[in-house]
Amino acid sequence: MSGERRKLSKAQQLRLAANVGANQTLADLVNERVGGTKAHKVLSFIGIYGVFVEQHGYEPRSISELARSATSSRSAATIDRYGAAFREAFPEYDMPTVLWFIAREAMPHLNVENDEVLGMQLGATPL
Known about the structure:
The chain has helices at 10-18, 26-34, 36-56, 63-68, 76-89, 97-106, 115-122. It is an all-alpha fold.
C-alpha cells in the first residue's frame, strides 16, 4: 500500500461520525432508536429538512425557522412534533444535516420537491 491516504468525501466523514452498522438503511437505524411508531415522524422531519435545504440553498438554523418556511404543507406544530421525534432518535444532532448529506450522496435522484414523498424514499437510504 502506498503512503498516500485516500481522502474521504464529506458524506463519508459524516457517515463515520454517525456510527451506523453495515448493510443498514436509515429506516433500520430509526426503528432501532425509537421504534416504528415514531419512525415516520423522524423520516418525515428529515424530508422536510431536505426540501428546505434544496429549495433555499442553505441549512435552517433552527426548527422554528424550518417550521416558519413555506416549503412544507405541514403546520408549524406538526413540524415541531416531528423535530421532537427526531431529537429523541438522534439526541447527538440538533438538525438532520449528517443524515441528509448521507442520503443525498447515496441516493442522488431523490424527489426533493415533495417532503412527503421524500420522507418515504429516505427510509431506503443505505448507510
